[in-house]
Every structure is written in C-alpha cells, then in structure tokens.
Write a structure and sequence with these properties.
This protein is mainly beta. The protein has one domain (about 10-140): 60s Ribosomal Protein L30, Chain: A (2-Layer Sandwich), CATH 3.30.1330.80. The chain has 1 helix and 9 strands; from the N terminus they run E-H-E-E-E-E-E-E-E-E. The protein has one helix spanning about 25-35; strands at about 10-15, 40-55, 60-65, 70-85, 85-95, 100-105, 110-125, 130, 140. Strands 1, 2, 3, 4, 5, 6, 7, 8 and 9 form a 9-stranded mixed sheet that branches. The longest helix has 11 residues, at about 25-35. The structure holds zinc ion. Zinc ion binds near residues 90, 92 and 106.
C-alpha cells in the first residue's frame, strides 16, 4: 500500500556550498545545524570528483564507484527525513562530462564540491522516520 502524508511548506532557502567541501556531508550539516527534519533539496553546479552508489537488488548491498574527474552537476534531487534521531539527506545526482555523457546514482560521501548552488525547502508535517525494511534491505520510511 502506498504511504502518503501531507506536508506543508515552511520555508524556502537558497545557498552556496563551500569549494572543496564534501557534497553529502555539507548538505547534511546544513540540515542538522538548522533543525531541518523534513524537506527537499535540489542543486546544481560542479564537482571535482564524485563517489556514487548503486544498490544491487540481489545482494542487497550498495556498490560504490568513484568518478575521478571534474563533472557538471546537471541535477541533484533529494529529501530530508530522520534516521536514528538525526537529520538524514537521501539524494540522487546526475553528472555530465565534457562530452555531455551522463553518470548518475545515489550520492555518497566522497563527492567533492567545485561549486554548488542549492535550494532547500523545509516542510512542516508528520515525522518521516527511516527504519530497516525487510523486503528491500534498505532504510525506508516507516509506515503509519
Ligand atoms: Zn538512494
């Protein structure tokens, strides 16, 4: 059954991440430091290197890979919720090289910012908490 909860926009913020920062860690820190526990994020810019994950549905484990080159962030989309009592950012990213070839995946620690502009929307609403999901092996939002 589909889970559906109503949320309301509480605020919209725009910002720029520091050069050389870790993309996922920095977005997570922005959320933690501002008590954001429910929201969404989008961003664009460029990275010096990327580390992305691909979830193998058979082994139920993430495979991580590194793209060791400067790439454009053509899209980053993510949500903010709660895992183990902490703000958690779940984001996917699409990156492009000098020929416009695209790479994508689950944003992991190890992606270094060259330049990044983001929009963060904060929501008011029921807590969305992550918990281990037996079927997928992933930390998904709890039902109810
Ligand atoms: Zn993911």
């Amino acid at each position: 059954m589909t889970m559906l909860k109503e949320v309301k926009s509480k605020g919209l913020y725009m910002g720029k991440l520091p050069h050389g920062s870790d993309l996922l860690d920095e977005i997570t820190a922005v959320c933690s430091q501002n008590q954001v526990r429910l929201g969404r994020i989008e961003a664009l810019g460029a990275v010096r290197q990327a580390r992305l994950g691909y979830y193998d549905q058979n082994t139920r484990e993430y495979e991580f890979f590194i793209l060791d080159q400067g790439l454009e962030i053509t899209n980053l989309v993510g949500n903010v919720s709660v895992k183990d009592g902490q703000s958690m950012v779940h984001a996917h990213i699409t990156l492009a090289d000098s020929a416009g070839r695209a790479f994508g995946g689950h944003l992991a620690q190890g992606t270094k910012v060259f330049a990044c502009e983001f929009v963060l929307e904060v929501f008011d609403g029921p807590a969305m908490e992550r918990d281990y999901d037996e079927i997928t092996g992933l930390p998904l939002w709890k039902d109810g």
